[in-house]
Every structure is written in structure tokens, then in C-alpha cells.
Design brief:
The protein is built from 16 helices and seven strands. It is an alpha+beta fold and about 425 residues long. The strands form two sheets. It has a five-stranded mixed sheet, covered by helices on one side. Strands 1-3 form a two-stranded antiparallel ribbon. Helix 3 crosses helix 5 and helix 8 runs antiparallel to helix 10. Keywords: Membrane, Transmembrane, Transmembrane helix.
Amino acid sequence: MIGFLKKYRAIPFGFILLFFIIEGLKYVDFIRIDSEEILVNVLGFIFWGLVISIIVHAAFFHRKERIFYWMIASWTISLIGFMLGRLMDYRVLGISCMFLLFISSFYILWSWYLQKYKNKNTITLLKERKSILIKMIILAIIFIVMLIIDDYMRVPDNPITFSLLTLFWLGVFYILAPRFFQKYRLLIIGLYGGGLVLFYLVIAFLGTRTHSENLDLFIMFLFPIPLFIILWLYDQWKWFQNLKADKAKAELALLKQQVNPHFFFNTLNNLYGLAKRKSDDAPDLILKLSDIMRYVIYKGKESEVKLEEEIEYLENYIELQQIRHHEKVEITFNKDIQESDILIPPLLFIILLENAFKHGVDSLVKGAYVNINLEVSNRQIMFEVSNNYDKSAQSDSKGIGLENLKKRLEIIYNNAFTLDFDIQKETYNVRLTINI
């Protein structure tokens, strides 16, 4: 509970601060609240309360830094100065302090975002990228000119003020989210440009308006904001999904690189044994090994291969083992393929077959067998390997082969596969089932 309160303490601080700000602005006659507009008042209080809470949260992020006190001081001075400017009817003071309040809020949010999510310091960044500082100065000039024009002209619904205000917020949007702005610039400019045109038409032909009509006109400029937030969230979600996909591809590539040396290491050991005995089977073994290497090197890097190619690869591997073991092992490979043009990841079955020889056949002096079954029907692949083994010759250490296979299956097929093991006294059976 205490941890929860610490994490979200900015929210009560933000709403309490908003309450005092509202009372102060009412006191200096800057805002007037219609008691009959209950829903509008509640929604407005919640909206601005959350906005101020975010600013407070961003400020608390810097609480251990010296700049934290400058943030608090600038906010306090700008609020008090604005209210004093209203009380004394000193427009320059009021406008300057309102601008200082905005700049302080913007800097607090920007500094929090850069340090928390980009691991960058704002002062250092501004020194490195002077163009951002220039854009901020231009926005500051637009904001000050807008306030001065609105205050001195005292024209209701001043078109110049609304035009500058729209330009100002577009500029803020461009600085805060430049990539998002560039991507959706036509939509953003079109919505706000259309809003300005509609605003000019309303003030030109409607004449006097009620408070409710004024409120509707104001909401019109706020309406695109939820749309932009939804678009931004969608972009972040899409970026996150692409990031996960890229991570999965990189992990798959790494696992494949680990599978290939694992197989070649064992095969070269076999070849070394034959060469040492000066066996006549060594040339055939080398030739068969070259076929296997060709498949692993060229097909192994692809994301998918035809099932027929994978079967041919397994058959080459089986022939290689038969050359090595002569009459020592009995191997059967039964295939029941009822569907054609099936695509699977390369090197998917070899680990299960290789383990049957490594932990089964190699542990026995005679009477070894390996039975392989491959069935494809109803969009399902079943690959099963059964072999006998000498239990006394087994070690407790686990190789990387099965672990890599499990990781690959999880990445590629998620929950659409099962990998079952049935270990008896002298028989080892493994079955892989994949729904495709």
C-alpha cells in the first residue's frame, strides 16, 4: 500500500494544487465557473488535474537534483506573478508570467521524458542541437505576440489570436513528437486548418453566441487530441510488436548458429575415428557429409524449407550413420505424408534423431535400433523417434540441442506444438507434434 502511494503520490498533489490555482484565478477574476455546467466542470477538473499531476510527477523525478528547486521556484513565481499582474492590471507582468509558467511546465515534462526514457540530459542536448533551441525561441515569440495582440486589441474571438494559437500548438507538437508529426502531418494540419476555417465561418455568420455554443467551439479544437493520442499509442504498439519480431528473428538466428556446430562437432568426431582406423568407409562418409553441410549452410539460413527437402536431409544423415555403424544398428524410417507443399523451419527434426544415436546407439555394443515415424495429415505434423539405450552409460549432463529446439519451437509455433518424452527402462521415445 505504501509503495502504491509513493508511486502515484503526484496525483493527489496535482489535484490539491489545481484546487488552489482555480481559487486564485477566480479571485483575480481570470476565470468564471458556471455552477449549472456540472458535467463540464467535473470533466474539466479531472482533465486539468491529471495534466498538473503529470507535471508534478515529472518534477518529482528530479527531486534529488539541484534543478528540482529551480523548477519549483519558476512555477511558484510565474503563478504568483500572473495573479499580481491581474490584480494590478499590469498586462506585461501577467503575460510574461503566463509565458514563464508554460515554458517551465514544458521544460519539466521534456527533461523528465529525455532522462527517463532516452537517458539524455536536456542541457547537454540543447547544446548539441541548437536547432531545437531556435524552434523553441520562435514558439516563445509566437506565444508572446499572441498574448499581446489578444490583450491589447480586446476583440472577442480574435481571428488573429486563434490563428497564432493554432500555429503555436502545431509547433509544440512538432518539437515534442517530430517523427509522429511528419508521419501524420497532412491529417494534423488538415484537422486544425479545417477547424480554423469552421471557426471563421461561425464567427462571421452566427453573430452572438450563448455560453454553450462558445464551449462547443472550444471543444472543437480539443477534439483531435484524443485521436492523436490513439494514433500515437497505435504507433507505439506497432513499434513494440516489430521490436519483438526482430528480437525473435535474432534469437532464432543465434539458435541456428548453435545447432550447426553441435551437429558438425559430432560428425567430425565420427570421421576422425574412421580415418584413424584407415577405414574404407571414410570417403563415402566425407561425400555424405558434404551433402549434409551443403543443406545446413544454404538451406539452414532460410526461415522455411519444403518438408521434402528436410526429409532428404534426414535420410542423408541416416545413411551417414549406417556407414559409420555398419551392422551394429537397425534403422527404420516410416513416412506417411498425406499433404504436400508443407513448409517447416529447417533443421527442426535433426536434434531428436541425433540424440537417438548419441545417447542410444553409441552407448550399446550390439542390438541397437532407431525407429523413426513421420506423419503429416489434417494440418498436423507428427515426428517420433524411438531407440534403446544403456542406462548405465548415461550421464546427467544436458546438451544445448534439446534446449535450443524447445526455444525455437516456442518462438515459431508458440503454443501450437507438443514435445513429449516417454522414458522406459531401456527404451527412449520422443514425439513432436506441430499444428500448422
